[in-house]
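Hypothesis: this fold can be encoded by more than one sequence.
Test: take the structure tokens below, design a sequence, compare later.
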């Protein structure tokens, strides 16, 4: 590596004179550092992980369905296992491609968990544990997690208002379970709905300008 004392620049390669001022250059020890950092290549790409996980999921589903056919559907746990593999695959793929957006990951996984638990409850005779306890507790935890993650990541309201809206919609959908009689012990669900409605009121009253800006960005109002 060479150095021009007049221009005070480092020069790559071997030059007889400075390319800027044509002056004499000096030899320096060491090599000039690269202009950009060298990024390490991933040993396994995301697409490869996606293909491997998809293959394992399909293979597991084929094996379980084969067992189900051969046993004439006498093994009730096979359906739950197949659903479990589906949930695991969806969770893995979602985390793989959305790992830089934890709010999107956790919202999606909560939605999948709610659907799966209600399905399992229905398939096992429906005792109501899913809509009475699991769904309200999960949505309550989701509200807390959304706010904490937004605070840690120092997000503006307009950057995470969409996830709060999805949380509120899922909370209000519990009214369906109450109206059709599926939820006979309504206290947990009602309390969670009440908390979300209070959250909506707080946003409208105290953060109306931020809410308006977020709405303008989302819906081009």
């Amino acid at each position: 590596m060479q150095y021009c004392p007049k221009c005070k620049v480092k020069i790559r390669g071997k030059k007889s004179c400075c390319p800027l001022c044509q002056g004499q250059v000096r030899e320096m020890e060491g090599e000039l550092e690269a202009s950009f950092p060298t990024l390490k290549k991933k040993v396994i790409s995301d697409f490869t992980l996606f293909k491997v996980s998809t293959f394992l999921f399909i293979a597991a589903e084929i094996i379980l369905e084969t067992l189900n056919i051969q046993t004439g559907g006498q093994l009730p746990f096979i359906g739950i296992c197949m659903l479990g593999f589906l949930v695991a695959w969806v969770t893995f793929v979602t985390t793989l491609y959305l790992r830089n957006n934890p709010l999107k990951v956790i919202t999606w996984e909560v939605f999948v968990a709610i659907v799966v638990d209600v399905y399992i409850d229905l398939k096992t005779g429906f005792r109501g544990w899913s809509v009475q306890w699991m769904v309200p507790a999960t949505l309550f935890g989701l509200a807390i997690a959304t706010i904490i993650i937004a605070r840690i990541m120092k997000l503006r309201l307009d950057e995470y208002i969409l996830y709060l809206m999805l949380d509120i919609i899922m909370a209000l959908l519990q009214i369906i379970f109450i109206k059709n009689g599926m939820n006979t012990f309504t206290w947990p669900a009602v309390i969670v709905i009440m908390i979300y409605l209070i959250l909506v009121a707080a946003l409208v009253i105290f953060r109306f300008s931020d809410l308006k800006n977020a709405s303008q960005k989302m819906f081009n109002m």
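The CA atoms of residues 57 and 86 lie 7 Å apart. The chain is about 65% helix and 5% strand.
Hypothesis status: open.
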